[in-house]
Design goal:
The complex is a heterodimer of chains A (about 280) and B (about 260). Chain A is mainly alpha-helical and about 280 residues long. In chain A, about 75% of the residues lie in helices and about 0% in strands. Chain A has one domain. Chain B is globular. Classes of the chains: A mainly alpha (about 280), B mainly alpha (about 260). Chains A and B meet through helix 2 and helix 9 of A and helix 2 and helix 8 of B.
């Protein structure tokens, strides 16, 4: 209970920060624009490539695979880097000192902010998927397969939850860097999004990558999350239970590693007196 | 203008890591889309993904280092210095653009070299046309950045949210990675017309024609004329918008408010 309270307080602050800068429904709608456009871009590349290339074979199933994958990668990318920005922005706007002066580790703050971002991102990315599915189908005149039943929604929800440990772990690792950095941390979101696009199997199977990169990418918890969540909406695209198991296992390892690194980094940053350093 | 350009150049090249920082998303997104084209049997279009990676570097620079720059300058207390200096704000913005363009070149070069080394995309270029189109595209794109910069003077921290809202849709509508104008576009004519109002759309279309289909200047002159007109119009518009919003901010006393 004593750990839950600071996490919930931070999560509430995160919600206020992320969506209360304007009318909340408008804010949520605006946040769905980027994942929608991103999913449309990837899907149109697939459509354009397969319909204009002699070697390309257009398949609605494959297009749905790409569409769902791109939305899921955008979901992870939009909340995994929040700890970084929460710390960096907190330093700039002088809110972070109020956090590290409290008796608890700033890890609770970081976790709370990531969880609030997870909730917002879940709403916005799933809305983006629904709109993109409709718009894309109308634009190219194809009915895209997408299984939406109580069972598939439950499977998707379970997959989304199973990804939290991995995303939090990545967030803690990036946050540990943010405690020390005072300028380059702003580049991390771009790297996180880009790396997920290439290595998570969101846009193309990891087997497209050269070995041993493909093997490493396959066992990433984010790859397994995307595979499981995609299987919920497009049955038969992966082995759901195996992907969930690997996602939880990899996520657990990443979370433990992230927490250990973050805690050590926080201790050292306090000791070195750099925890609120704004400028290098 | 020269002073502001030099500050930007010094801040980038004085810290070589900034080049590494700036190239992350362009390199990786270009790589991802190249692999996507490759994996679906459309390797012939990988050049589009590489070109998109080059141009997304500049588009990102326009959004994050032009449009929202004055907001950051306000937070750091630099904006008051601009206002009290005898230099015109437009000149400062042009200097910022020149510095931004030169500072983004290394990232664009890295995307090009990596794309070429990894995928050997097929190129059939009319280099004179490519150079002219590229120059005009950047001129009109950065002029748009100047307009956004002036409009963002009225925003506080919302500017960053607005950037996030704009970044991906403009990338999609302008066809950074696939054609959006003409017969191979997935968009209906009305949407193509709207997309044509974005300088990047016309620029990308002309760049693809000159770089991959060998179209000469004589063939793409309408695109070039449109880009030149856009650059001039947007430059004039940004000057008026800056003056208007500066006066408004002075009257309301909000022009130098750092955080709101």
């Amino acid at each position: 209970m004593t750990s839950l309270r600071p996490i919930l307080a931070s999560a509430w602050m995160g919600i206020q920060h992320d969506i209360a800068w304007t009318t909340p429904p408008l804010s949520v709608a605006l946040r769905a624009v980027a994942p929608f456009a991103s999913a449309m871009t990837v899907s149109i590349i697939y459509w354009f490539g397969t319909t204009n290339s002699p070697a390309g074979v257009f398949s609605p199933d494959h297009l749905a695979f790409v569409l769902v994958g791109s939305t899921l990668y955008a979901h992870v990318a939009s909340y995994a880097w929040v700890p970084t920005v929460a710390i960096a922005e907190g330093k700039n706007l002088a809110t972070f000192p109020h956090v590290y002066l409290t008796s608890r580790s700033t890890a609770f703050y970081v976790a709370g902010r990531a969880l609030s971002a997870f909730v917002i991102s879940t709403i916005t990315s799933l809305s983006a998927l629904a709109v993109a599915w409709y718009v894309l189908g109308s634009l190219i005149g194809v009915q895209l397969p997408l299984t939406v039943t109580p069972a598939s929604i439950a499977m998707l929800a379970a997959a989304l939850l199973a990804n939290i440990p991995g995303a939090l772990g990545l967030g803690f690792l990036l946050g540990a860097y943010s405690l020390y950095a005072s300028k380059f941390e702003w580049s991390l979101p771009g790297y996180v999004a880009g790396l997920l696009m290439v290595f998570s199997g969101a846009l193309f199977p990891t087997s497209t990558l050269p070995w041993p990169v493909s093997a490493g990418a396959y066992y990433l918890p984010f790859t397994q999350f995307i595979a499981a969540a995609r299987d919920a909406l497009l049955p038969g695209s992966a082995d759901y239970l195996a992907s969930m198991g690997l996602c939880l296992l990899g996520g657990g390892v990443l979370l433990a590693l992230g927490l250990a690194v973050y805690s050590a980094s926080e201790r050292k940053a306090r000791k070195d007196g750099v925890i609120d350093r704004r400028l290098a | 203008m020269k002073a502001r350009a030099l500050v930007r150049l010094w801040s980038i090249f004085g810290e070589p890591l900034w080049v590494f920082v700036g190239m992350g998303f362009p390199v990786l997104s270009s790589l991802a889309f190249s692999l996507l084209y490759y994996s679906i049997g459309a390797a012939g279009y990988i050049g589009f993904a590489v070109l998109g990676g080059v141009m997304v570097s500049f588009w990102g620079n326009v959004l994050w280092s032009m449009a929202s720059q004055f907001n950051w300058d306000k937070q750091e207390g630099l904006f008051e210095i601009y206002l009290t200096s005898p230099a015109s704000i437009s000149a400062i913005l042009i200097g910022m653009s020149v510095g931004g363009i030169i500072g983004t070149v290394p990232s664009a070069v890295i995307v090009t070299v990596l794309g070429w080394a990894l995928f050997h995309p097929a190129v059939n270029a009319s280099w004179g046309g490519v150079a002219l189109t590229f120059g005009l595209t950047l001129a009109s794109l950065y002029a748009m950045g100047m307009v956004l910069s002036s409009l963002y003077l009225t925003y506080g921290r919302e500017a960053e949210s607005m950037n996030e809202v704009l970044q991906e849709p403009v990338s999609m509508l302008s066809g950074l990675y696939f054609p959006v104008l003409g017969g191979s576009s997935p968009f209906p004519l009305a949407l193509q017309a709207v997309a044509s109002l974005i300088p990047l759309t016309i620029g990308m279309d002309a760049l693809r024609k000159t770089l991959f289909y060998g179209d000469s200047v004589a063939q793409v002159w309408p695109d070039m004329a449109a880009l030149a007109v856009m650059a001039v119009v947007l430059l004039i518009l940004s000057s008026y918008a800056l003056k208007f919003l500066e006066n408004l901010g002075r009257k309301e006393g909000t022009i130098a408010v750092r955080i709101r």
